[in-house]
Write a structure and sequence with these properties.
Strand order of the largest sheet: 1-2
Number of strands: 4
Order of helices and strands: HHHHEEHHHHHHEEHHHHHHH
Strand content: under 5%
Largest sheet: 2 strands, antiparallel
Number of helices: 17
Membrane topology: Multi-pass membrane protein
Number of domains: 4
Main location: membrane
Organism: Adineta ricciae
Pfam family, one: Ion_trans
GO cellular component, one term: sarcoplasmic reticulum membrane
Radius of gyration: 31 Å
Length: 381
């Protein structure tokens, strides 16, 4: 749970500081505009709370945001948005947390806005929900043993290849949902036609039992949605033959068009979306794997350049441009006070704060410098 809160606070703090999110209107990055809007408004709730950020390491992010955007927005409005109140010093705003003593004082000091946001984040986090329901089914399984069978789905989550298959269903989720909605609408249109003109074909009599599958609109729609879509040849496979009936020609057109639009086109589109999504995900994974195995992550120079010498690429990626060393250095800067930075550390830290990555030696390395006789660069050294 602390990691979930930290990651979400980090996401909000960085978007707020570097992108001006929630201050400047920005278009949605994905097609799920409704979910994006709800998420945006939900995270906006916590920005003005006095406890934010609680888990994120940068406790001065609100001051940084205020100083950065003070020229673009009204100063008082900006402070109210960030939850910063006036202090005794004229014109100075700070985050004021009341100090309370005693049990009632502790209860009053609880930041309700932050706690509501916090529990909302927890119970909408996929990792937490997975572990929570896994534990819940484990408890219920002690009373109803068949519930333990649900735990077999853990295989699909644990094995990466199977999890990719599951992601293929949600990868094009919006298009998939809209296609299903369109198919439901088309089925309803056929239901209306059937209910008004072909209702007699939906009555079956077997062993003196009369089964009316289109006695009302709801029953008729349910029959088309369940039996018509599942039937390999469409709704015509589930109805009485129209041979010799005055409406025979119209029934043939009805059955064939249902089969063509529902079975051939719409169901094929749904299957195609899932298959294409699986193919896209697999290509992405293969592309990332191939890139990491054939290019240096830090400088982007290909393996062929280094393998002119034995084990050249391996030596370069483990000794010269080891990704772990760069990660360690950035972590070191995050935990070191700004006043204690060296000249090079200040240079990298300022770039990191501005989200500029010029300190990475893109397209450059010691070997290339030695070959050109230029010596080492400041960033590389």
């Amino acid at each position: 749970v602390p990691l979930v809160i930290f990651k979400r606070e980090k996401e909000i703090a960085r978007k707020l500081e570097f992108e001006g999110a929630w201050l400047i209107d920005q278009p949605s990055e994905n097609n799920s505009w409704l979910l994006s809007y709800l998420s945006r408004e939900w995270h906006k709730l916590v920005i003005s709370s006095k406890s934010f950020p609680d888990s994120y390491w940068d406790k001065f992010v609100k001051k940084k945001v205020r100083n950065k955007y003070a020229d673009q927005f009204d100063y008082d409005e900006l402070n109210r948005f960030l939850g910063m109140e006036k202090t005794d010093t004229p014109g100075k705003f700070e985050i004021v947390k009341p100090i309370e003593t005693g049990l009632w004082g502790k209860i009053k000091s609880i930041d309700l806005r932050y706690q509501i946001w916090k529990w909302g984040v927890i119970f909408t986090d996929n990792s937490f929900l997975y572990v929570f329901f896994y534990f819940l089914f484990s408890v219920i399984g002690n009373y109803t043993y068949f519930v333990f069978a649900i735990h077999l789905l853990d295989v699909a989550i644990s094995v990466k290849a199977l999890s990719t298959i599951l992601k293929s269903i949600t990868h094009n989720g919006r298009q998939l949902l809209l296609t299903i909605m369109l198919m439901t609408v088309v089925v309803y249109l056929y239901t209306v036609i059937a209910f008004n003109f072909f209702r007699k074909f939906y009555t079956k009599e077997e062993d003196e039992e009369r089964e009316e599958n289109c006695k009302d609109m709801f029953t008729c729609f349910k029959f088309h949605l369940y039996s018509g879509i599942r039937a390999g040849g469409g709704i015509g496979d589930e109805l009485e033959s129209p041979n010799g009936d005055p409406l025979e020609l119209y029934r043939i057109v009805f059955d064939i068009t249902f089969f063509f639009f529902i079975i051939v086109i719409l169901l094929a589109i749904i299957q195609g979306l899932i298959i294409d999504a699986f193919g896209d995900l697999r290509e992405q994974l293969d592309s990332v794997k191939e890139t990491l195995e054939s290019k240096c992550f830090i400088c982007g120079i290909g393996q062929d350049y280094f393998d002119k010498e034995p084990h050249g690429f391996e030596t370069h990626t483990t000794a010269e441009h080891n990704f772990a060393n760069y990660l360690f250095f950035l972590t070191h800067l995050l935990n070191k006070p700004d006043t204690e930075h060296t000249g090079q550390e200040s240079y990298v830290w300022e770039m990191y704060q501005s989200r500029k990555w010029d300190f990475f030696p893109i397209g450059d390395c010691f070997r290339r410098q030695y070959e050109s006789g230029s010596g080492g660069t400041t960033a590389e050294s």
